[in-house]
Specification:
Elements lengths: L2 H12 L4 H10 L3 H33 L20 H51 L2 H5 L3 H43 L1 H8 L2 H38 L1 H6 L3 H53 L12 H42 L21 E9 L19 E10 L4 E5 L6 H8 L7 E6 L2 E2 L5 H7 E4 L10 H5 L8 H10 L3 H6 L17 H15 L3 E5 L7 H16 L2 E5 L11 E6 L2 E6 L1 H7 L2 H9 L4
Parallel strand pairs: 3-8, 3-9, 6-7, 7-8
Antiparallel strand pairs: 1-2, 1-4, 4-5, 9-10
Bound molecules: adenosine-5'-triphosphate.
Adenosine-5'-triphosphate binds next to helix 12.
Keywords: ATP-binding, Cell membrane, Membrane, Nucleotide-binding, Transmembrane, Transmembrane helix, Transport
Pfam families: ABC_membrane, ABC_tran
InterPro entries: AAA+_ATPase, ABC1_TM_dom, ABC1_TM_sf, ABC_transporter-like_ATP-bd, ABC_transporter-like_CS, P-loop_NTPase, Type_1_exporter
């Protein structure tokens, strides 16, 4: 990943406006019933948990002690309250049991609903992110931001889940606890309540400072984790190269540096937490101690200092219980802040990805190609690889500062014709073919299929009409049959076998221990290059499109297999338009037209015989490959 790519991606992330609000708007709205039920149950559970200390305090003064204080509870009508101390005792007991039972049931309800809500949102975030990824322009993947992308699907989705599940519910708990406790304490004894709650502004200020200080550190940490993932993935993906070039220590060194970045950025977050968490605990503890000292002194000696009035034992007990209750949720603030910060950075990345502009997608007025014949036309096509993340989404005529890879290329292939592209490596042959599939769009000129500009037709119908066998054959981990079926998912076993036969692949498949059910391993590592290529050809045969692009389709096979494949390719190409890219000129001698490309330009064109007769670039390439014979 270059510095430019990184900053472009960072810029998109930084532009995400209020990411957590957006998370609720885009994903929470359709699930709001679950969220509302969870929040309501949480509210009720927390409120119920405040009941026992109040009942206990009241009972101590009205039932157990001198019995001079009347039995009264906030929000409970006087008519409901029994008159005898014994009945009041049982009334208190039932209230306490009822409160605990309500709290337990509601805790269960909000636990289940919060889980359901959070995991359902995450499921949607993960699948949307992956679908978006698949829609992104090829250039995004060319820039190899794989680690960053994997981090979005793994770490970021996890962070958001923790936020939606824990942080959201704990914030409500905190609000109810602190708000409810403050309300009860003030109604019981405002003076002692002030002593208990005097630390709250300190807690808020300290938390605000922490949130501001930790935010950039979190972002740095997440970037470091993403780079680390990319490094690991590159190292493992290229393990064969690492071994054959003896570069284990070099790769390990790079991973060590990357891991050290993760370590340092993590420690810089933790260093702040080390200060914050004990600080919060200390402030909360101070509140408890102050309440105990002032309240205890008040009971023992009388109202201390400027305070005045009475304090009953029951009220003191309620205060002590309540103070303990708000210490726990307040100490949670640090976790909530952590989780919110984490989630904000993660949501920025999720929506940063969602906001990456996609240039290659169906236009609103795109039409589906119906039953195309396969006429391919390139008219004055130019192309340069440019970075879509950096570009503003406009169709820049020249691709910005990027060097042109194709310049003014034109050719026609009538239905059923074969056009071949030859030329030195890096001449732009593969790029030319990719434009037909709209893996990229030309920066100037147009590519047409059956007279329709490929940008004006639906991607689905276009890619259905064009079969592509590329230089790097990719197989998915799965069976051989599954891999062939990428050509047509509903194909019967018989059709799969026929396709394999046509691609000269049936024989080696039948020799495998489990035939078509043999697993090919990740990226098809358990097969040879030639075998992989034949499976890719079988896919194309099964696909049976009117246009076929063969990019060095026979490069990884021995001469004998090549001849066999060539026979089947010739059969395959007979009744469809075929664009062939080949280094071995012997495979294209029968093409209707051969284009010789050099540095993105067509330098010669004609049939094999024409080109030989001309005695130019093609003729000398031919002589070189046939050893002058
Ligand atoms: N994804 C990409 N991003 C940026 N530049 C690219 C990309 N793919 C190819 N190029 C560049 O475009 C030019 C043409 O590449 P292309 O693969 O089309 O050539 P080719 O003629 O098919 O080569 P070969 O015969 O080696 O396959 C090369 O200079 C290459 O470096």
């Amino acid at each position: 990943m270059t510095a430019d790519d990184e900053s472009a991606f960072d810029r998109l992330r930084a532009e995400v406006d209020r990411p957590l609000t957006r998370l609720f708007r885009e994903y929470g709205a359709s699930r709001k019933r679950w969220l509302a039920l969870g929040l309501a149950a949480n509210l009720l559970a927390q409120t119920a948990s405040l009941v026992p200390p109040v009942v206990l305090g009241t009972a101590i003064d009205a039932v157990f002690g001198s019995q001079t204080t009347p039995y009264a509870l906030p929000l409970v009508p006087a008519a409901w309250i029994p008159t005898t101390p014994e009945a009041q005792f049982w009334f208190s007991a039932w209230l306490i049991v009822g409160a605990f039972a309500t709290a337990a049931v509601c805790t269960w309800v909000y636990g289940v609903t919060a889980n359901f809500f959070a995991h359902d949102v995450m499921h949607a975030v993960r699948t949307d992110s992956f679908e978006k990824l698949l829609r992104l322009d090829m250039q995004f993947f060319d820039d190899k931001q794989t680690g960053e992308v994997m981090a979005i699907l793994n770490n970021d989705a996890g962070n958001l889940e923790v936020f939606l599940d824990n942080a959201l519910m704990n914030s409500l708990r905190l609000l109810v606890m602190v708000g409810g406790i403050a309300f009860i304490l003030f109604s019981l004894n405002p003076q002692l309540a002030l002593v208990t709650l005097v630390v709250v502004p300190g807690l808020v200020g300290f938390t605000l400072w922490f949130m501001r200080a930790v935010a950039p550190r979190y972002r740095a940490r997440q970037s470091a984790v993403a780079s680390f993932n990319t490094r690991i993935e590159n190292g493992i993906g290229g393990v064969e190269l690492v071994k054959t070039t003896n570069s284990e220590s070099f790769e390990s060194g790079r991973v060590r540096d990357s891991s050290a970045d993760v370590y340092e950025t993590t420690m810089s977050v933790l260093k702040l937490s080390y200060l914050y968490r004990p600080g919060m605990e200390l402030l909360a503890g101070l509140s408890f101690a102050a309440t105990f000292v002032v309240g205890g002194y008040w009971l023992l000696v009388g109202a201390p200092g400027p305070l005045a009035g009475e304090l009953s034992v029951g009220t003191f007990v309620t205060f002590i219980f309540m103070t303990q209750r708000f210490v726990a949720p307040l100490a949670e603030v640090s976790n909530i802040v952590d989780q919110v910060q984490n989630a904000r950075a993660s949501a920025e990345r999720v929506f940063g990805l969602a906001d990456i502009p996609v240039h290659i997608e169906d236009r609103p007025d795109a039409v589906a190609l119906s039953d195309p014949e396969g006429r391919v036309e390139y008219e004055s096509v130019s192309f340069a690889y440019s970075d879509p993340v950096l570009s503003d989404g406009g169709d820049s005529a020249d691709g910005g500062d990027d060097p042109p890879v194709l310049e003014d290329v034109s050719f026609d292939a009538a239905p059923g014709e074969t056009v071949a592209f030859v030329g030195p490596t890096g001449a732009g042959k593969s790029t030319l073919a990719k434009l037909l599939l709209r893996l990229y769009d030309p920066t100037a000129g147009s590519v047409r299929l059956d007279g329709e500009d490929v940008r004006a037709v639906t991607l689905d119908s276009l890619r259905n009409a064009v079969g592509y066998v590329s230089q790097d054959t990719h197989l998915f981990d799965g069976t051989i049959a599954e891999n062939v079926r990428y050509g047509r998912f509903d194909a019967s076993d018989e059709a799969v076998r026929e396709a394999a036969e046509a691609a000269e692949a049936h024989e080696f498949i039948a020799d495998m221990p489990e035939g078509y059910e043999t697993r090919v391993g990740e990226r098809g590592v358990k097969l040879s290059g030639g075998q992989r290529q034949r499976i890719a050809l079988a896919r194309a045969v099964l696909h049976d499109p009117p246009v076929l692009v063969l990019d060095e389709a026979t490069s990884a096979v021995d001469t004998e297999t090549e001849r066999a494949i060539q026979r089947s390719l010739d059969r395959l190409a007979e009744d469809r338009t075929t664009l062939v890219i080949a280094h071995r000129l012997s495979t294209v001698v029968d093409a209707d037209e051969i284009l010789v490309l050099e540095d993105g330009r067509v330098v010669e064109r004609g049939t094999h015989d024409d080109l030989l007769a001309r005695g130019g670039r093609y003729a000398s390439l031919w002589r070189a490959q046939t050893n002058g014979r």
